[in-house]
Specification:
With 115 residues, the chain is an alpha+beta fold. 32% of the residues lie in helices and 13% in strands. It binds iron/sulfur cluster (SF4).
């Protein structure tokens, strides 16, 4: 396990991005790092020095235990805060997401799975 994405790029075949103890995105290193799907992964990668993306500054606070229902990232999600994810906002705040398997690139996000 590493918190260094550059190191992951060089030594790993696959990557799993975690938020509050849950895998939120998984896939090959190349697919996740060049085409992140989950808003948390997008925010992480946006602040790397070599990123061309506009840096995403997360607002809100991580939830305390026990976790509230819904997506564990919903209190800080930039898509929910901006209204972009408003069609799935109720799901974000109420419906837990499935544990991701080890298949192709996948993101535990209602916005991604309904798009
Ligand atoms: S499920 Fe909703 S709150 Fe969670 S990351 Fe996706 S859009 Fe954001």
């Amino acid at each position: 396990m590493t918190h260094d994405l550059g190191l992951a790029w060089n030594i790993a075949d696959r990557v799993a991005v975690m938020y509050l103890g849950r895998v939120v995105e998984t896939g090959t290193v190349e697919s996740v790092l060049t085409n992140p799907q989950h808003p948390y992964t997008q925010a992480l990668l946006s602040v790397l020095p070599e990123s061309d993306a506009t840096p995403v500054l997360l607002t809100g606070e991580p939830p305390t235990l026990p976790h509230p229902p819904g997506c564990r990232f919903h209190a800080r999600c930039q898509l929910l805060a901006s209204g972009e994810a408003s069609p799935v906002a109720d799901l974000c705040r109420s419906q837990d997401l499935p544990v991701l398997g080890a298949g192709e690139q996948a993101a535990a996000c209602h916005w991604v799975t309904t798009a």
